[in-house]
Amino acid sequence: xxxxxxxxxxxxxxxxxxxxxxxxxxxxxxxxxxxxxxxxxxxxxxxxxxxxxxxxxxxxxxxxxxxxxxxxxxxxxxxxxxxxxxxxxxxxxxxxxxxxxxxxxxxxxxxxxxxxxxxxxxxxxxxxxxxxxxxxxxxxxxxxxxxxxxxxxxxxxxxxxxxxxxxxxxxxxxxxxxxxxxxxxxxxxxxxxxxxxxxxxxxxxxxxxxxxxxxxxxxxxxxxxxxxxxxxxxxxxxxxxxxxxxxxxxxxxxxxxxxxxxxxxxxxxxxxxxxxxxxxxxxxxxxxxxxxxxxxxxxxxxxxxxxxxxxxxxxxxxxxxxxxxxxxxxxxxxxxxxxxxxxxxxxxx
Length: 349
Ligand code: SAH
Hints:
Layout: H1 2-11, H2 16-24, H3 30-44, E1 47-50, E2 52-57, H4 83-95, E3 100-105, H5 113-126, E4 131-135, H6 141-149, E5 154-156, H7 164-170, H8 177-190, E6 193-200, H9 207-220, E7 224-229, H10 246-259, H11 269-274, H12 278-284, E8 289-290, H13 297-300, H14 316-329, E9 333-335, H15 344-348
Parallel strand pairs: 1-8, 1-9, 2-3, 3-4, 4-5, 5-6, 6-7
Helix pairs in contact: 1-3, 2-9, 2-10, 3-10, 4-5, 5-6, 6-8
This protein binds S-adenosyl-L-homocysteine (SAH).
S-adenosyl-L-homocysteine binds near residues 157, 228, 230 and 270.
Protein backbone atom coordinates (compact mmCIF):
# COMPACT_ATOMS: atom_id res chain seq x y z
CA UNK A 1 0.00 0.00 0.00
CA UNK A 2 2.87 2.40 0.72
CA UNK A 3 3.69 2.80 -2.98
CA UNK A 4 0.03 3.48 -3.76
CA UNK A 5 -0.27 6.06 -0.99
CA UNK A 6 2.94 7.81 -2.10
CA UNK A 7 1.60 7.99 -5.64
CA UNK A 8 -1.74 9.39 -4.42
CA UNK A 9 0.20 11.90 -2.31
CA UNK A 10 2.20 13.20 -5.25
CA UNK A 11 -0.36 12.89 -8.08
CA UNK A 12 -3.63 13.53 -6.20
CA UNK A 13 -5.33 10.68 -8.03
CA UNK A 14 -5.26 6.94 -8.72
CA UNK A 15 -7.16 4.51 -10.91
CA UNK A 16 -10.60 3.28 -9.81
CA UNK A 17 -9.16 -0.11 -8.89
CA UNK A 18 -6.43 1.44 -6.76
CA UNK A 19 -8.89 3.69 -4.96
CA UNK A 20 -11.01 0.60 -4.27
CA UNK A 21 -8.01 -1.03 -2.61
CA UNK A 22 -7.61 1.93 -0.29
CA UNK A 23 -11.33 1.87 0.54
CA UNK A 24 -11.67 -1.81 1.28
CA UNK A 25 -8.22 -3.46 1.40
CA UNK A 26 -6.73 -5.11 4.48
CA UNK A 27 -4.01 -2.79 5.75
CA UNK A 28 -2.92 -0.61 8.65
CA UNK A 29 -4.07 2.96 7.95
CA UNK A 30 -1.31 4.69 9.95
CA UNK A 31 0.79 5.73 6.95
CA UNK A 32 -2.31 6.62 4.92
CA UNK A 33 -3.70 8.98 7.57
CA UNK A 34 -0.24 10.49 8.19
CA UNK A 35 0.07 11.28 4.49
CA UNK A 36 -3.35 12.95 4.48
CA UNK A 37 -2.35 14.95 7.56
CA UNK A 38 0.85 16.03 5.83
CA UNK A 39 -1.14 17.45 2.91
CA UNK A 40 -3.54 19.18 5.25
CA UNK A 41 -0.64 20.77 7.15
CA UNK A 42 0.97 21.90 3.91
CA UNK A 43 -2.07 24.02 3.02
CA UNK A 44 -3.82 24.71 6.31
CA UNK A 45 -1.20 24.13 9.01
CA UNK A 46 -2.70 22.91 12.26
CA UNK A 47 -5.68 25.30 12.14
CA UNK A 48 -9.24 24.11 12.50
CA UNK A 49 -12.10 26.34 11.36
CA UNK A 50 -15.28 26.73 13.36
CA UNK A 51 -18.79 26.88 11.89
CA UNK A 52 -21.74 27.61 14.11
CA UNK A 53 -24.59 25.33 13.09
CA UNK A 54 -28.10 26.70 13.55
CA UNK A 55 -30.78 24.08 12.84
CA UNK A 56 -33.62 26.35 11.80
CA UNK A 57 -36.44 23.87 11.17
CA UNK A 58 -37.24 20.19 11.16
CA UNK A 59 -40.31 20.51 8.96
CA UNK A 60 -39.52 18.83 5.66
CA UNK A 61 -41.51 18.20 2.52
CA UNK A 62 -39.14 15.43 1.46
CA UNK A 63 -39.23 11.80 2.44
CA UNK A 64 -35.62 10.59 2.23
CA UNK A 65 -35.73 7.02 3.48
CA UNK A 66 -32.72 7.36 5.80
CA UNK A 67 -33.63 10.61 7.53
CA UNK A 68 -35.36 10.97 10.89
CA UNK A 69 -37.10 14.25 9.98
CA UNK A 70 -38.63 12.85 6.79
CA UNK A 71 -42.18 13.95 6.09
CA UNK A 72 -43.71 10.54 6.85
CA UNK A 73 -42.19 10.27 10.31
CA UNK A 74 -45.22 11.23 12.34
CA UNK A 75 -43.30 10.60 15.56
CA UNK A 76 -41.11 13.63 14.85
CA UNK A 77 -42.14 16.65 16.94
CA UNK A 78 -41.83 19.62 14.58
CA UNK A 79 -40.43 23.08 15.29
CA UNK A 80 -39.17 26.06 13.38
CA UNK A 81 -37.08 29.02 14.52
CA UNK A 82 -38.23 32.60 14.02
CA UNK A 83 -36.03 35.35 12.66
CA UNK A 84 -35.51 36.54 16.23
CA UNK A 85 -34.52 33.06 17.41
CA UNK A 86 -31.97 32.80 14.60
CA UNK A 87 -30.53 36.25 15.30
CA UNK A 88 -30.10 35.44 18.98
CA UNK A 89 -28.23 32.25 18.04
CA UNK A 90 -25.91 34.44 15.96
CA UNK A 91 -25.46 36.92 18.84
CA UNK A 92 -24.52 34.06 21.12
CA UNK A 93 -22.22 32.57 18.49
CA UNK A 94 -20.49 35.88 17.74
CA UNK A 95 -19.70 36.32 21.43
CA UNK A 96 -18.14 32.86 21.43
CA UNK A 97 -15.90 33.74 18.48
CA UNK A 98 -17.83 32.18 15.59
CA UNK A 99 -17.45 33.99 12.26
CA UNK A 100 -19.49 31.60 10.12
CA UNK A 101 -23.14 30.80 10.70
CA UNK A 102 -24.64 27.78 8.96
CA UNK A 103 -28.42 27.90 8.62
CA UNK A 104 -29.56 24.34 8.04
CA UNK A 105 -33.01 22.85 7.93
CA UNK A 106 -35.51 20.53 6.34
CA UNK A 107 -37.19 21.77 3.16
CA UNK A 108 -39.72 23.95 4.93
CA UNK A 109 -41.98 26.10 2.72
CA UNK A 110 -42.35 28.62 5.54
CA UNK A 111 -38.91 29.99 4.62
CA UNK A 112 -39.86 31.73 1.40
CA UNK A 113 -37.21 33.63 -0.54
CA UNK A 114 -38.43 36.88 1.01
CA UNK A 115 -38.18 35.55 4.54
CA UNK A 116 -34.77 33.99 3.93
CA UNK A 117 -33.38 37.12 2.25
CA UNK A 118 -34.51 39.24 5.15
CA UNK A 119 -32.84 36.93 7.67
CA UNK A 120 -29.62 36.83 5.63
CA UNK A 121 -29.54 40.64 5.28
CA UNK A 122 -30.09 41.15 8.99
CA UNK A 123 -27.26 38.80 9.90
CA UNK A 124 -24.89 40.42 7.38
CA UNK A 125 -25.88 43.96 8.50
CA UNK A 126 -25.20 43.15 12.10
CA UNK A 127 -22.11 41.00 11.49
CA UNK A 128 -20.47 42.08 8.20
CA UNK A 129 -17.31 40.21 9.16
CA UNK A 130 -19.17 36.87 9.22
CA UNK A 131 -19.94 34.39 6.48
CA UNK A 132 -23.46 33.04 6.08
CA UNK A 133 -23.76 29.46 4.87
CA UNK A 134 -27.10 27.99 3.84
CA UNK A 135 -28.07 24.32 3.86
CA UNK A 136 -31.73 24.31 2.92
CA UNK A 137 -31.90 21.62 0.27
CA UNK A 138 -33.05 21.91 -3.32
CA UNK A 139 -34.55 25.25 -4.35
CA UNK A 140 -35.03 27.03 -7.65
CA UNK A 141 -32.24 28.82 -9.50
CA UNK A 142 -34.12 32.09 -8.85
CA UNK A 143 -34.18 31.39 -5.15
CA UNK A 144 -30.46 30.57 -4.99
CA UNK A 145 -29.72 33.80 -6.89
CA UNK A 146 -31.87 35.95 -4.63
CA UNK A 147 -30.30 34.57 -1.47
CA UNK A 148 -26.82 35.08 -2.91
CA UNK A 149 -27.68 38.71 -3.73
CA UNK A 150 -28.99 39.11 -0.18
CA UNK A 151 -25.48 38.24 1.04
CA UNK A 152 -25.29 34.48 1.52
CA UNK A 153 -21.71 33.33 0.93
CA UNK A 154 -21.79 29.55 0.93
CA UNK A 155 -24.20 26.67 0.34
CA UNK A 156 -24.01 23.07 1.54
CA UNK A 157 -25.90 20.44 -0.42
CA UNK A 158 -24.57 16.91 -0.21
CA UNK A 159 -25.09 14.97 -3.40
CA UNK A 160 -25.69 11.98 -1.05
CA UNK A 161 -24.70 9.40 -3.68
CA UNK A 162 -23.59 10.00 -7.25
CA UNK A 163 -24.99 6.75 -8.60
CA UNK A 164 -28.44 7.39 -10.06
CA UNK A 165 -29.76 3.93 -9.24
CA UNK A 166 -28.43 4.00 -5.68
CA UNK A 167 -29.92 7.47 -5.26
CA UNK A 168 -33.26 6.02 -6.31
CA UNK A 169 -33.09 3.42 -3.55
CA UNK A 170 -32.46 6.04 -0.87
CA UNK A 171 -35.14 8.48 -1.98
CA UNK A 172 -38.82 8.36 -2.93
CA UNK A 173 -40.10 8.85 -6.47
CA UNK A 174 -40.03 12.50 -7.41
CA UNK A 175 -36.55 13.12 -6.01
CA UNK A 176 -33.62 12.58 -8.34
CA UNK A 177 -29.84 12.62 -8.34
CA UNK A 178 -30.08 14.57 -11.55
CA UNK A 179 -31.91 17.48 -9.97
CA UNK A 180 -29.66 17.51 -6.92
CA UNK A 181 -26.53 17.59 -9.08
CA UNK A 182 -28.04 20.30 -11.26
CA UNK A 183 -28.60 22.42 -8.13
CA UNK A 184 -24.94 21.96 -7.19
CA UNK A 185 -23.64 23.17 -10.54
CA UNK A 186 -26.04 26.13 -10.41
CA UNK A 187 -24.85 27.09 -6.94
CA UNK A 188 -21.25 27.07 -8.13
CA UNK A 189 -22.05 29.12 -11.19
CA UNK A 190 -23.89 31.74 -9.15
CA UNK A 191 -20.73 32.19 -7.08
CA UNK A 192 -21.46 30.43 -3.81
CA UNK A 193 -18.58 28.62 -2.14
CA UNK A 194 -20.22 25.27 -2.54
CA UNK A 195 -20.16 22.18 -0.37
CA UNK A 196 -21.17 18.69 -1.36
CA UNK A 197 -20.66 15.25 0.11
CA UNK A 198 -22.17 11.88 0.88
CA UNK A 199 -22.92 9.33 3.56
CA UNK A 200 -20.59 6.39 4.07
CA UNK A 201 -22.24 3.01 4.54
CA UNK A 202 -25.75 3.99 3.51
CA UNK A 203 -28.09 1.08 2.68
CA UNK A 204 -27.25 -0.70 -0.62
CA UNK A 205 -24.04 1.34 -1.08
CA UNK A 206 -21.16 -0.51 -2.72
CA UNK A 207 -17.49 0.46 -2.64
CA UNK A 208 -17.80 1.16 -6.38
CA UNK A 209 -20.48 3.72 -5.51
CA UNK A 210 -17.95 5.47 -3.28
CA UNK A 211 -15.48 5.66 -6.16
CA UNK A 212 -18.28 7.24 -8.24
CA UNK A 213 -18.80 9.77 -5.44
CA UNK A 214 -15.14 10.77 -5.61
CA UNK A 215 -15.31 11.03 -9.42
CA UNK A 216 -18.41 13.21 -9.18
CA UNK A 217 -16.62 15.52 -6.74
CA UNK A 218 -13.70 15.79 -9.17
CA UNK A 219 -16.16 17.09 -11.74
CA UNK A 220 -17.87 19.50 -9.39
CA UNK A 221 -14.70 20.72 -7.60
CA UNK A 222 -16.54 21.97 -4.50
CA UNK A 223 -14.81 24.18 -1.95
CA UNK A 224 -16.23 22.10 0.92
CA UNK A 225 -16.79 18.35 1.23
CA UNK A 226 -18.81 16.95 4.11
CA UNK A 227 -19.04 13.24 4.74
CA UNK A 228 -20.16 11.15 7.68
CA UNK A 229 -21.29 7.63 8.36
CA UNK A 230 -24.90 6.75 7.65
CA UNK A 231 -26.50 6.22 11.07
CA UNK A 232 -29.70 4.27 11.61
CA UNK A 233 -32.82 6.09 12.76
CA UNK A 234 -35.37 3.88 14.47
CA UNK A 235 -38.45 5.50 12.90
CA UNK A 236 -37.46 5.25 9.23
CA UNK A 237 -37.96 2.48 6.66
CA UNK A 238 -34.21 1.80 7.01
CA UNK A 239 -34.41 1.08 10.74
CA UNK A 240 -33.05 -2.45 10.20
CA UNK A 241 -29.96 -1.40 8.24
CA UNK A 242 -26.69 -1.14 10.19
CA UNK A 243 -24.82 2.16 10.49
CA UNK A 244 -21.67 2.88 8.49
CA UNK A 245 -18.33 2.25 10.18
CA UNK A 246 -15.71 4.52 11.66
CA UNK A 247 -12.96 2.75 9.76
CA UNK A 248 -14.43 3.27 6.32
CA UNK A 249 -15.46 6.87 7.03
CA UNK A 250 -11.92 7.74 8.14
CA UNK A 251 -10.48 6.09 5.03
CA UNK A 252 -12.76 8.27 2.92
CA UNK A 253 -11.76 11.42 4.83
CA UNK A 254 -8.09 10.64 4.08
CA UNK A 255 -8.86 9.93 0.43
CA UNK A 256 -10.69 13.27 0.17
CA UNK A 257 -7.77 15.18 1.67
CA UNK A 258 -5.28 13.55 -0.70
CA UNK A 259 -7.51 14.03 -3.77
CA UNK A 260 -8.77 17.53 -2.81
CA UNK A 261 -5.82 19.08 -0.93
CA UNK A 262 -7.38 22.53 -0.53
CA UNK A 263 -10.93 21.47 0.37
CA UNK A 264 -12.58 22.38 3.65
CA UNK A 265 -13.48 19.04 5.19
CA UNK A 266 -15.44 18.85 8.44
CA UNK A 267 -15.05 16.26 11.17
CA UNK A 268 -18.81 15.81 11.36
CA UNK A 269 -21.22 15.31 14.23
CA UNK A 270 -22.14 11.92 12.73
CA UNK A 271 -18.49 10.87 13.00
CA UNK A 272 -18.51 11.93 16.65
CA UNK A 273 -21.72 9.97 17.16
CA UNK A 274 -20.45 6.56 15.99
CA UNK A 275 -17.28 6.81 18.10
CA UNK A 276 -16.56 8.95 21.19
CA UNK A 277 -13.31 10.24 19.63
CA UNK A 278 -14.56 10.11 16.04
CA UNK A 279 -14.08 13.80 15.35
CA UNK A 280 -10.54 13.81 16.75
CA UNK A 281 -9.68 10.84 14.54
CA UNK A 282 -11.27 12.67 11.59
CA UNK A 283 -9.00 15.67 12.20
CA UNK A 284 -5.96 13.38 12.28
CA UNK A 285 -7.04 11.82 8.95
CA UNK A 286 -7.29 15.14 7.10
CA UNK A 287 -10.39 17.03 8.29
CA UNK A 288 -9.94 20.72 9.14
CA UNK A 289 -13.39 22.05 10.10
CA UNK A 290 -15.75 21.45 13.01
CA UNK A 291 -19.35 22.55 13.24
CA UNK A 292 -20.47 23.00 16.85
CA UNK A 293 -24.17 23.38 17.46
CA UNK A 294 -25.54 26.88 18.10
CA UNK A 295 -29.22 25.90 18.02
CA UNK A 296 -31.34 26.75 21.06
CA UNK A 297 -31.11 23.90 23.58
CA UNK A 298 -34.93 23.56 23.63
CA UNK A 299 -35.02 22.46 19.96
CA UNK A 300 -31.76 20.51 19.69
CA UNK A 301 -33.13 17.07 20.40
CA UNK A 302 -35.85 17.62 17.81
CA UNK A 303 -33.42 18.00 14.89
CA UNK A 304 -33.21 14.26 15.01
CA UNK A 305 -31.68 13.07 11.74
CA UNK A 306 -30.33 9.82 13.23
CA UNK A 307 -30.29 7.96 16.57
CA UNK A 308 -28.12 9.06 19.53
CA UNK A 309 -26.93 12.31 17.94
CA UNK A 310 -24.35 13.91 20.24
CA UNK A 311 -24.28 17.45 21.70
CA UNK A 312 -28.05 17.79 22.06
CA UNK A 313 -28.01 18.70 25.76
CA UNK A 314 -25.33 21.35 26.13
CA UNK A 315 -25.39 25.11 25.73
CA UNK A 316 -23.40 26.48 22.78
CA UNK A 317 -20.66 27.76 25.08
CA UNK A 318 -20.14 24.30 26.58
CA UNK A 319 -19.99 22.75 23.10
CA UNK A 320 -17.37 25.20 22.02
CA UNK A 321 -15.26 24.61 25.10
CA UNK A 322 -15.54 20.85 24.76
CA UNK A 323 -14.54 20.96 21.11
CA UNK A 324 -11.63 23.27 21.78
CA UNK A 325 -10.26 20.76 24.31
CA UNK A 326 -10.80 17.90 21.88
CA UNK A 327 -9.06 19.75 19.04
CA UNK A 328 -6.09 20.73 21.19
CA UNK A 329 -5.80 17.20 22.58
CA UNK A 330 -4.73 15.99 19.12
CA UNK A 331 -2.36 18.86 18.37
CA UNK A 332 -4.49 21.29 16.36
CA UNK A 333 -5.93 24.69 17.25
CA UNK A 334 -9.08 26.65 16.55
CA UNK A 335 -8.72 29.54 14.11
CA UNK A 336 -11.22 32.32 14.63
CA UNK A 337 -12.19 34.06 11.42
CA UNK A 338 -14.42 33.31 8.45
CA UNK A 339 -12.22 30.46 7.28
CA UNK A 340 -12.73 30.68 3.52
CA UNK A 341 -11.25 27.96 1.35
CA UNK A 342 -7.83 28.74 -0.04
CA UNK A 343 -7.68 28.69 -3.80
CA UNK A 344 -4.93 27.52 -6.10
CA UNK A 345 -3.95 31.17 -6.74
CA UNK A 346 -3.43 31.95 -3.07
CA UNK A 347 -1.66 28.66 -2.48
CA UNK A 348 0.90 29.43 -5.18
CA UNK A 349 1.82 32.84 -3.75
N1 SAH B 1 -32.51 19.59 3.92
C1 SAH B 1 -31.09 19.86 3.77
C2 SAH B 1 -30.29 19.44 4.99
C3 SAH B 1 -30.29 17.96 5.20
S1 SAH B 1 -29.62 17.38 6.72
C4 SAH B 1 -30.60 19.20 2.49
O1 SAH B 1 -31.38 18.56 1.81
O2 SAH B 1 -29.44 19.35 2.18
C5 SAH B 1 -27.90 17.32 6.34
C6 SAH B 1 -27.32 15.98 5.97
O3 SAH B 1 -27.54 15.01 6.99
C7 SAH B 1 -27.91 15.31 4.76
O4 SAH B 1 -27.40 15.86 3.59
C8 SAH B 1 -27.53 13.83 4.95
O5 SAH B 1 -26.35 13.50 4.24
C9 SAH B 1 -27.28 13.75 6.45
N2 SAH B 1 -28.18 12.73 7.06
C10 SAH B 1 -29.52 12.65 7.00
N3 SAH B 1 -29.96 11.52 7.60
C11 SAH B 1 -28.86 10.86 8.04
C12 SAH B 1 -28.62 9.63 8.70
N4 SAH B 1 -29.63 8.84 9.04
N5 SAH B 1 -27.35 9.29 8.99
C13 SAH B 1 -26.33 10.09 8.65
N6 SAH B 1 -26.47 11.25 8.02
C14 SAH B 1 -27.72 11.64 7.70
